[in-house]
Structure formats: structure tokens, C-alpha cells
Design goal:
The chain is an all-alpha fold. About 45% of the residues lie in helices and about 0% in strands. The longest helix has 10 residues. The chain is globular, with a radius of gyration of 13 Å. The termini are far apart.
Length: about 70
């Protein structure tokens, strides 16, 4: 298994929640959010990410401009 590129991942991470223990650990972040029926902040636009609403409905609304 390749080593995690933590420093490189942190450079590209768009999540604004700085205290997150998973910041830069993408596989842990995705797993955590999926277990909560959410998506990570990096899946959202900048404005939608700042709401901290990681719901799948908010993701669809962000991408398509409408609720489901």
C-alpha cells in the first residue's frame, strides 16, 4: 500500500474546518463522511463547503441548483 501523501493532500484540501483530525487523510475523511451519509467538503463548491452541510441533498443542490 502506498504511503499517504499527507503534506501534499493538506495543500490541496479545501475543507475549511481546520481542527479536523482527518485533514489530509483523504481515505479516512471519505470513509468518515460516508458512514454518516455525507460527503467530504472537497466535493462541494467553496460557498457550499462553508455551510458545513455535508448532506448528499446539499451536494445535489450545490451541483444542480435544486433540492431532492
Amino acid at each position: 500500500m502506498p504511503d499517504c501523501k499527507l503534506a501534499k493532500n493538506k495543500e490541496k484540501c479545501s475543507c475549511t474546518y481546520e481542527n479536523c483530525s482527518r485533514k489530509g487523510f483523504c481515505c479516512e475523511c471519505v470513509s468518515y463522511h460516508l458512514s454518516n451519509q455525507e460527503l467530504p467538503g472537497c466535493f462541494f463548491s467553496k460557498n457550499a463547503e462553508r455551510t458545513y452541510d455535508r448532506s448528499i441533498n446539499n451536494f445535489i443542490k450545490d451541483k444542480l441548483g435544486k433540492d431532492f
